[in-house]
UniProtKB/TrEMBL annotation:
<dbReference type="InterPro" id="IPR003795">
    <property type="entry name" value="DUF192"/>
</dbReference>
<dbReference type="InterPro" id="IPR038695">
    <property type="entry name" value="Saro_0823-like_sf"/>
</dbReference>
<dbReference type="Pfam" id="PF02643">
    <property type="entry name" value="DUF192"/>
</dbReference>
<protein>
    <submittedName>
        <fullName>DUF192 domain-containing protein</fullName>
    </submittedName>
</protein>
Amino acid sequence: MTPPLWLVGSLSVLALAGCRSEPEQKLAATNATTLPAASPASSPLDGTHPVSGLPVVPLEIRAGGKVHTFTVEVARSQDEQAYGLMNRQQLAPAEGMVFPFAPPRPASFWMKNTLIPLDMIFVRADGTIARIATAQPLSLKPVGVGEPVLAVLEIAGGRAAELGITADARVSWPGGPQR
């Protein structure tokens, strides 16, 4: 006796879905497309990024008596956060992406399909920086911090050191910690 066709189809779909780790399952739909590189002047007047379509907000980092201002994309949804800055070929020095979490939680990121080095800045709920890590392109090695954070900010790799941004500097943006 042959099993019903619907049963065979359902089992096939379940078997295929189980072949990927959870992060790969989240990214499977987005890996097929490659976004064009962002232009250095990327924030139009309507407040959305021309490449990702994500909302864009100003973000400030206060470090060493200086204020460094960035224009950042805000990745709020699980899909937006899973895709992040993948497939970008450049990131302007004053651009970035912030990944807010509600409530704060321990966070760990990898660089799958991310073509440029990034500084990952882990931000506590009070706006102070818990850790800055420079992540290498295409690495599958998790980069994290051992404490709950409100957000992770990604900027061009090496930029934090260039600007003198260190742990315990303060980060603020609309909808995030305030000065």
